Amino acid sequence: MDDLKAQLEELKKRLEVLEESIDPVDELMLSIKARLKKRLEGGALPELDEEKAAKTLKALANPDRIRILKMLAEKPMGFKEIKEALGVESPTVSHHLKLLVRTGMVRKGERYEILPNGRLFLRLLEIITALGEVEE
After folding, report:
1. What's the CA gap between 3 and 35, in Å, rounded?
2. Could you give the dihedral angle defined by the CA atoms of residues 60, 66, 68 and 69, in that order, rounded to the nearest 10 degrees?
3. Mean of the per-residue pLDDT values for the chain?
4. Backbone phi, then psi, for 108, in 5-degree steps?
5. pLDDT over 50 (residue 127)
6. CB count, 10 Å around CB of 24?
7. Distances (CA, A) of 81 to 59, 70, 78
8. E strand or H helix at 15, and its extent?
9. 109, 77 Cβ separation under 8 angstroms
10. What DSSP letter does each residue of 60-111 carry, written as one string?
11. 97 with 112: CB under 8 angstroms?
């Protein structure tokens, strides 16, 4: 229990550091802060679902999927627009979109649009890549 309390305190300190460095107009980071505070109100860290986490990471583990998220962050797009922008075959685009929809990053309607979790992952990728190079 003491270990859990120590982890919670460490997260709170990290959250404070993040809060100090957040640009007030960065609404996405402010929404992350609010979501984290709500999760930590009970005093316990949520259990990590390894399967869900792996599926989510897999959805981002392809440059074309990241490109799709970036394009959809700019505006909703139809399947054909996405296909033409990527310059790949329809089955490939379909596979990428299916994974992004299944993981809750993209919604399929008349056009595909990015969801808040998709925006969050893009922002986290920006932060992670800004911190340094990832070793293979």
Report:
1. 23
2. 80
3. 83
4. -100, 125
5. yes
6. 7
7. 20, 14, 5
8. helix 2-21
9. no
10. HSSHHHHHHHHHHHHS-B-HHHHHHHHT--HHHHHHHHHHHHHTTSEEESSS
11. yes
More confident residue, 24 or 127: 127
Q: For residues 65 and 47, is the Cβ–Cβ distance under 8 A?
A: no
User: What is residue 9's predicted lDDT score, i.e. its pLDDT?
Assistant: 82
Q: Which of 69, 81, 80, 79 is nearest to 114 (CA)?
A: 69
Task: Give the number of other Cβ atoms within 10 Å of residue 100's Cβ.
Answer: 26
What dihedral do alpha carbons 116, 122, 123, 124 form, nearest 10°?
110
Is 91 within 8 Å of 85 (Cβ atoms)?
no
Q: Which residue has the higher pLDDT, 90 or 4?
A: 90
For residue range 39-92, what is the model confidence (pLDDT) as tens digits?
A: 677 666 678 889 888 888 887 889 999 999 999 999 999 999 999 999 999 999
Tokens of 76: 């909703």
- Determine the pLDDT at residue 17: 74
